[in-house]
UniProtKB/TrEMBL annotation:
Domain OCT: 349-429
The protein's role, per its UniProt record: An essential GTPase which binds GTP, GDP and possibly (p)ppGpp with moderate affinity, with high nucleotide exchange rates and a fairly low GTP hydrolysis rate. Plays a role in control of the cell cycle, stress response, ribosome biogenesis and in those bacteria that undergo differentiation, in morphogenesis control.
Cofactor: Mg(2+)
InterPro entries per record: G_OBG, GTP-bd, GTP-bd_Obg/CgtA, GTP-bd_prot_GTP1/OBG_C_sf, GTP1-OBG_CS, GTP1_OBG_dom, GTP1_OBG_dom_sf, OBG_GTPase
Cellular compartments annotated: Cytoplasm
EC number of the protein: 3.6.5.-
Single GO BP term: ribosome biogenesis
One Pfam family named in its UniProt record: MMR_HSR1
Record keywords: Cytoplasm, GTP-binding, Hydrolase, Magnesium, Metal-binding, Nucleotide-binding
Organism: Eubacterium ruminantium
Protein name: GTPase Obg
Protein encoded by which gene: obg
């Protein structure tokens, strides 16, 4: 079964709680704190599997959860870290946020696994909270909470050339003739219900990957019929072959078909029609020489600037000439794979705008400022400040949430200290 779209819920692991305990040794009645730290929660990781070509595994299973970290133990025992969950997807999969529809990650060019939801850090045991005035702390830090997110997985095929056109114009027959693909072919509408990929080998090092996009109907760009579900597969193609039934055997007008398909493509994506396109006037084997010329003249008159190839997918007439021309277009196109840039930073998924925070000046020192609150604690729990990317996210977090402005309003000066949950920074104005 082919599936190119799935809605799933993913959840990272909760960090294990820190432990509260005290040493119990013979002849030491009042032992110090020895509560261990909680383990880190597991992360949700996506990885490309080149052996997959469908998202069918995500049609029945809807929720995927990483393991929680274990609570810390006595005698400074560290809780076990939760296991990551690795979700394998086909190359070409785009991960989107369900609520906004924005791109989280395009897995098409990812050769290494990608962490989408990072597990929560484990909480610190009570041994970390000893102070000069508190020698027996009965408090331990709770583990960072899990993050849950509903995402959409969309498979956008990676092909050099896309075959587009109305149902039953001969796209599947053309793909079967010129490639190693063996799509099901029958003489009725919507025979092709899944996109098919085939490798076109022209010899001498020439060739490309071709995709047969299932029949598009009017209104497809608005979600009507099956067309909308397959239009996404056109987005990565470098060249389009617009296949029409020049014989009118299905009672269709090839000129009208070309106009309608172009309207659907333009409505779906403003730049699809900017890529090179050729018109394959198919099924000429059903026409007499006179009828052929009449049909082709109508198409040429209406589209004088288009490159038109009279062909017959059934007999092979004109097909190789067209493919050699298309191969040239593919070679001239940029080699870069079309990648959909992230519209949401993965780190933004850890933010919880509903949680409060506070920015204040220290009561003990006019040159020390404190930033605290559940939102700050959660953000720090998921951010690795020692990594460049994590520190950049941390700086952007402070700026985006107006924290730097709040510090300036409180009178912070260059060289002053900023404290937040065990972290200290020297402030310098940009």
């Amino acid at each position: 079964m082919f599936a190119d779209r799935a809605k799933i819920t993913i959840r990272s692991g909760k960090g294990g709680d820190g432990h509260v305990s005290f040493r119990r040794e013979l002849y030491v009645p009042n032992g110090g704190p020895d509560g261990g730290d909680g383990g880190n929660g597991g992360s949700v990781i996506f990885a490309v599997d080149l052996g997959l070509n469908t998202l069918v595994d995500y049609r029945n299973s809807k929720k995927f959860k990483a393991e929680d970290g274990q609570e810390g133990g006595k005698k400074n025992c560290h809780g076990a870290n939760g296991k990551d969950i690795i979700l394998k997807v086909p190359q070409g999969t785009v991960i989107k946020d369900f609520e906004t529809g924005k791109v989280i990650m395009d897995m098409s060019d990812k050769t290494e696994p990608v962490v989408i939801l990072k597990g929560g850090h484990g909480g610190k045991g009570n041994q970390h909270y000893v102070t000069s005035v508190m020698q027996a702390p009965k408090y331990a830090q709770p583990g960072q909470p899990a993050i849950e997110k509903t995402v959409i997985l969309e498979l956008k095929m990676i092909a050099d050339v896309g075959l587009v056109g109305f149902p039953s114009v001969g796209k599947s027959s053309l793909l079967a003739r010129v490639s190693n693909a063996r799509p099901k072919i029958a003489d009725y509408h919507f025979t092709t219900l899944v996109p098919n990929l085939g490798v076109v080998d022209l010899g001498g090092g020439k060739g490309f990957v071709m995709a047969d996009i299932p029949g598009i109907i009017e209104g497809a760009s608005e979600g009507k019929g099956l067309g909308f579900a397959f239009l996404r597969h056109i987005e990565r193609t470098k060249v389009l072959i617009h296949v029409v039934d020049a014989s009118g055997s299905e009672g269709r007008d090839p000129v009208d078909d070309i106009k309608k398909i172009n309207e659907e493509l333009a409505s779906y994506s403003y730049n699809i029609l900017d890529r090179p396109t050729v018109i394959a006037a198919n099924k000429l084997d059903l026409l007499t020489p006179e009828e052929r010329e009449i049909s082709l003249s109508f198409i040429r008159d209406e589209f004088p600037d288009a490159k038109i190839f009279p062909i017959s997918a059934a007999t092979g007439e004109g097909v190789r000439e067209m493919l050699l021309y298309v191969d040239g277009l593919v070679k001239e196109a940029p080699d870069d794979l079309i990648i959909f840039e992230p519209e949401i930073d993965v780190n933004d998924l850890i933010d919880s705008p509903e949680l409060p925070f506070e920015v204040k000046k220290s009561d003990k020192d006019d040159h020390t400022f404190i930033i605290e609150g559940p939102r700050i604690e959660k953000m720090l729990g998921y951010t690795n400040l020692e990594a460049e990317k994590g520190f950049i996210f941390f700086q952007n977090f402070l700026k985006k949430n107006g924290i730097l402005t709040m510090l300036e309003e409180l009178g912070i000066e260059d060289g002053d200290t900023v404290k937040m949950y065990g972290h200290e920074f020297d402030y310098y104005h940009e």
